[in-house]
Amino acid sequence: TSSRVQLPVLANILFTASKNKLFLSSTNLESSIKIAVGAKVEKEGEITVPGKTVAEIVQNLDAGRITLSAQKESLEIGSDNFASTISGMNASDFPNIPGSVVKSSVLSGDNFKTSLAKVLFAVSSDETRAALTGVLLVAGENSIKLVATDGFRLSQSSLKIDVKEIKKHIIIPKNCLIELEKLLVGESEFKMSVSESDKQIVFEVGNAVLSSRLIEGDYPDFERIIPKSLKVDVDVDRLEFLKAVKLGGVFARDVANVLKLEIEDGFVNVLADSTKSGSQKTKVDARVGGLDTKNMVMAFNYKFLEDFLNSVDDENIKMSFTDPNSPGVFANPKDKDYLHIIMPVKL
């Protein structure tokens, strides 16, 4: 339910009893969710009651069957040793929300969830740039590409899938995709549908239907950001490099998160220097190719490096650079469908 309530009913959950199912619906007008659970329905009907109150009651009840009964504008909840009456509102005040998916594409739950995890962390939180607060979905011939950027880094992950029902470019709000991630746990597949007329996307996952308004606006030309010519390649052990970045972060956080990477033949020095708290240097063995000078010194936000390294679950990562002032390209050598770009900090 909505944390920024504009209408009292938006803080409520709609309970609908119909055809041996109980439907629970919640919305904040931007996104909504409808979940079906099995029930023995003696009389069909609906009522809307405060979501927070219901959640607190249910969380503290013992496992087992409960009985729900709507009486005018109140909901009675009962079990073997518990009874409660919650004041509610007329269901007619609750906004209409999508109940199912039509003209849908079927996607792999595991694959989509894996791709989401590689891009969601790069979404911007700057509300003044609305397009960047969501994930761009680019539909190709037999694939989709998920893209996220906050202006300082860009993450891109591709999936092999046929999505004929989706127009070429749509921007999906981050919060909607976070909820989708939760729903996809344990689900092998799900359905996705886009309504261009309503500017809305709908996901059907198991017994739940999640819908959201799409973000309007123009997404930046992300292809232009990706470097076309790279000179220096660096392959390192992911966990060793992550450890070095975290050690550097102890001091880098005092200097605007700036962490230096000094690349030399056979290793990378990870350095951080703060006049306030101290300094550190960690040497990480690396396979370095294309280095035509004694060394190359780059600087990045250490938190951005951490985020990328945590998004990869393989043993090694590859970093590629053109020069200290150009974006760095970070990748998993075993995953050609994943690409991450980080803008350098100018020294």
From TrEMBL:
Main location: cytoplasm
Domain DNA polymerase III beta sliding clamp central per the UniProt entry, residue ranges: 107-221
GO terms for biological process, alphabetical: DNA strand elongation involved in DNA replication
Pfam families with a match to the protein in the record: DNA_pol3_beta (PF00712), DNA_pol3_beta_2 (PF02767), DNA_pol3_beta_3 (PF02768)
Localization (cell): Cytoplasm
Annotated ranges, domain DNA polymerase III beta sliding clamp N-terminal: 2-98
Keywords: Cytoplasm, DNA replication, DNA-binding, DNA-directed DNA polymerase, Nucleotidyltransferase, Transferase
GO CC terms, sorted: cytoplasm; DNA polymerase III complex
GO MF annotation, one: DNA-directed DNA polymerase activity
InterPro entries: DNA_clamp_sf, DNA_polIII_beta, DNA_polIII_beta_C, DNA_polIII_beta_cen, DNA_polIII_beta_N
SMART domains: POL3Bc
Domain DNA polymerase III beta sliding clamp C-terminal span(s) in chain numbering: 224-345
Family per record: Belongs to the beta sliding clamp family.
Protein name: DNA polymerase III subunit beta
Organism, as annotated: Candidatus Woesebacteria bacterium GWA1_41_8
